[in-house]
Amino acid sequence: MASSFARILSSKRKVGILSLVGAGSLTVGFFLNREQHVNAGAQVRRIYPPSAEYPDLRKHNNCMASHLTPAVYGKLCNKTTPNGYTLDEAIQTGVDNPGHPFIKTVGMVAGDEESYEVFADLFNPVIKERHNGYDPCNMKHPTDLDSSKIRGGQFDDKYVLSSRVRTGRSIRGLSLPPACTRAERREVEKVVVDALAGLKGDLAGKYYSLTQMTEQEQQQLIDDHFLFDKPVSPLLTCAGMARDWPDARGIWHNNEKTFLVWINEEDHTRVISMEKGGNMRRVFERFCKGLQEVERLIQEKGWEFMWNEHLGYILTCPSNLGTGLRAGVHVTLPRLGKDPRFPKILDNLRLQKRGTGGVDTAAVGNTFDISNLDRLGQSEVQLVQTVIDGVNYLIECEKKLERGQDIKIPAPISQFK
Amino acid sequence: MPFGNTHNQLKMNYTAEQEYPDLSKHNNHMAKVLTPEMYANLRDKQTPSGFTLDDVIQTGVDNPGHPFIMTVGCVAGDEETYEVFKDLLDPVIEDRHGGYKPTDKHKTDLNPDNLQGGDDLDPNYVLSSRVRTGRSIRGFCLPPHCSRGERRGIEGLSVEALGALDGDLKGKYYALKDMTEEEQQQLIDDHFLFDKPVSPLLLASGMARDWPDARGIWHNDNKTFLVWVNEEDHLRVISMQKGGNMKEVFNRFCTGLTKIEELFKEKGHEFMWNEHLGYVLTCPSNLGTGLRGGVHVKLPNVSKHEKFGEILKRLRLQKRGTGGVDTAAVGGVFDISNADRLGFSEVELVQMVVDGVKLLVDMEKCLEAGQSIDDLMPEQK
Q: What region holds the Phosphagen kinase C-terminal domain (chain B) (predicted)?
């Protein structure tokens, strides 16, 4: 792993300097000699030994707390990433938020791409636990954004009210939201907004910066359910992601309002493709096309996404590694939703249900948000196919129950293909 | 970054202009003072423990403020912050503390015998009396920047020192993370328990990290002397009791503080103090004495008088609701306390409260009797 990172960093050094334009512009020059200014390997300030600094995790129930033994803490607490990110910073959110007896949160974040490498002794077991046994040391993650491989994917609109696919992308070479400086965050904004401006056809759209939007624009974005707010969840604020809000944050969407990008919220970018109705196939097609276009556009300027063959796409939270993909539908299942076998059916199909308000909300009426459970270890195509096949099965069950027929719990599908 | 010091140079990859915060919608002391030039001059500096300008101002960047309330918008991470970043903090201090100059000297006076009167505020009107301040232990980083080990060190030293108090100051420590449910309920009923801060002003500066590790409450058996450990400052010290005997409250306050300071010195530690800024605390607004001396007092008539605000201003007092800062008064009962912290000694400030509250109660009685208070109007102190 270490050598691949070294190669990535050295290839970035060969990238030409972007021109530094004159007064009033925030264009950033990407210095060839970046490492000169960086505190690579700087000594972490220590007055007390690790045993005096080790956090009290006795009342904690998150993945970080499960794996951060005093030995691991002692081994990692004096290390820093080349940008200077430390273990204490990575785990702060998990120390501050002990968790819930029933919901196991991750409890740590990455401040930059190298965090996953420098603190691998903690990240790897956390990733393994969170992603059901995926071992970054000896497994490879498949990336596949070829939407032509999808079979089916057009659901009955009578049941499926809307379809949506989301993921995130990080810009290689810039720190992630917990650790980025204001200038780095502004650079992320600039790089992404420049790329999005190059989208054409049904993807052409407009950027709305949070600091500059008018009241009318704000109201429209609220009505479209596009506007994101300053995070209030302590899971995010304790990790430092809300610093300097709303500087360099914004929302981009295409004119047709079916492709949406959030900039500098919990990740550098969150990319969302969605539409009303059950055409998941088209939603995923647009998703892939949009992502590939944006990638091409940033590469033209010498940038790339954070990605490696073990962890797939690198995002702030370890729970979003791999594909970072959540593909889901809002589906009405009045009978199946009340059937006691419903949770087991979902489980075997590797799906999860949420209320239509998003994670942690309860379902209202008979409409459920159904999406893939997994993120890492399977490709985008595989996960979306899982959702399509699964939702088809759920609708079949609903129809059977409508006709008074019995339903079956399907055999569990395998996790890592 | 709170506690961190290892990426202080990362921002130097970018120009000052690229890093300068957007303060166009801000209304706090920091935003008024921090020009791009000042930012450029200070941004590569750090205190010996690694606290930087961006750490100082983060809370002010994240909390633009309110059009009517002027917050400070910056904090210290250690004692040296006030020196290393004096170009920013001196004008902030001057603005916040009524023109206090960088060359001014602050007088400390914790001799309660110097207080005149104060033992006879009418308990029919003055429901309770209270004096609070803060203290920081020299050599340790302040709450925005301290590590878990440092915070635990502060707790350990404080508990040891407080454990040696005797007489009417003898008491007990309740660590937040170890207290039983009964202890917790008792502390709530006594109005002693403090909670994890929810104010974004405090959260944005990193003071709530690792909660509730190394936080706790100590109070004496009589429940008249109370110390908060590792909340917004290393120590917050409170003396209080029902009724209007501010003299007794202040006596205990001074005696207790002096004893605690002696006990710390015996162990080789002292409080952060210098002759320019007095006692050094996390927020610049609490420098000098860090003292807020006040009463809960019934003033239903005076408070409705058109000159109430003017009277308070002349007496150098401020009003709050009885729920504390930012609450409204309920049933004509106000929290009246000194407006100043720095540039006046402890005795002087409590004297202003004692004299001012006496006058306010006299005015209240006049208005009750239907008399005018015009000839009671005070001069500007």
A: 125-367
